Each structure stands twice: as C-alpha cells, then as structure tokens.
Amino acid sequence: MRFEGVLSAWNHDAGYGAIRPVGGGDEVFVGLAAFPTDGEGARLDETLSFEIVTGRDGRKQAVNLRRIKRAAVNPAMREAVGVGSVRVRQAQRKRRLGLIAGGAVVTVMLVAGGLHWWMPQAKATEVPAASRR
Q1: Per-residue DSSP letters for 58-122?
Q2: Collapsing DSSP states into helix, strand and coil, what is residue 21?
Q3: Cα–Cα distance between 20 and 81 in angstroms, integer?
Q4: What angle do CA 93, 99, 105 make, to 5 degrees?
Q5: What are the backbone angles phi and psi of residue 17, rounded to the nearest 5°?
Q6: How far apart are CA 5 and CA 45, in angstroms?
Q7: From CA 44, how far away is CA 1, in angstroms rounded?
Q8: 88 vs 17: CA distance, rounded Å
Q9: What confidence score (pLDDT) does residue 24 get?
Q10: Burial profile 110-124: b = 16 or more Cβ within 10 angstroms, e = fewer
C-alpha cells in the first residue's frame, strides 16, 4: 500500500531522514537508498509517495519512493507540527540570540569608541596631581 508524505528532516552527511505522512501519524525513517536514482538528492518539504516496511531493527521505514510533482512549498510557510515545530522554534531562538549578541557587541564598541573620542585629553604641559609635591 502506498502512502504520501513530506520529507520533514534530512541529514546529508549520514544519508537518512524522516518523512511526515500527510494523513498524520509518526514520522517514518527513510534512507538514501530508498530514493529514486534520477540524479536528484533529497530536498526538505518535498512531497513523496512511498511504501512502508519493517526494518531489521523493528522500526518502520519508507521504501520505493517516488517524487510527486507539486507546486513549490516555501520553507518559511511550512507547517510546523510535531517534532518539526520544536526544530523551527530552536532555529528561531538561535537566530534571535545571535542578533541580540551581535547588537550588544556593536553597541559596546560604539560606546567605547565614543567615550574615547569625546573624553578630554590631558594637556602635555599639565602634571598629574598625584606626582605634584
């Protein structure tokens, strides 16, 4: 029996990922060998048709994948449900913290530079009060 789903996660280095079935349910493991040999690699948010079998380790995995041609889905508009929503929130938080840290560094540098620029310089002829006798 064939199912439809969306590639929701993919690890390019290891060559495996997960497919989120369209009708809901648990994500299904998928390996690189299950993809068609059409020269195209796995793409996130790609709609796929697949069959499910039980692997040697007892987990469900997708086999005999077929690509379904659909209108391109904007990753920013991707439905964030289940495990995917956690990943999206973590990425957003990481981006936000990076922007805040960068802004803080720039602010500190501007303040330090401004203080250095606007501080009156001691005249060369003045002797500091501590060294006067």
Answers
A1: S-EEEEEEEE---PPPPGGG----HHHHHHHHHHHHHHHHHHHHHHHHHHHHHHHHHHHHHSPPP
A2: strand
A3: 10
A4: 135
A5: -165, -155
A6: 9
A7: 23
A8: 16
A9: 83
A10: eeeeeeeeeeeeeee
Cα 107 to Cα 68: distance, rounded to the nearest angstrom: 49
pTM across the whole model: 0.51
Do 48 and 69 meet the contact criterion of CB atoms below 8 Å apart? no
Q: Mean per-residue pLDDT for 29-56?
A: 87
First to last CA, the chain: 98
* Residue written as token pair 């990753």: 75
Nearest to 82 by CA among 2, 3, 4, 9: 9
Average pLDDT over residues 21-27: 86
Q: Is 7 exposed, middle or buried (0-12, 13-18, 19+ CB in 10 A)?
A: buried
* The two three-digit tokens of residue 7, written as one number: 């590639």
Tens of pLDDT, residue by residue over 109-122, are 888 877 776 666 65
Per-residue pLDDT tens for 56-93? 888 899 999 998 876 555 555 555 444 566 677 777 78
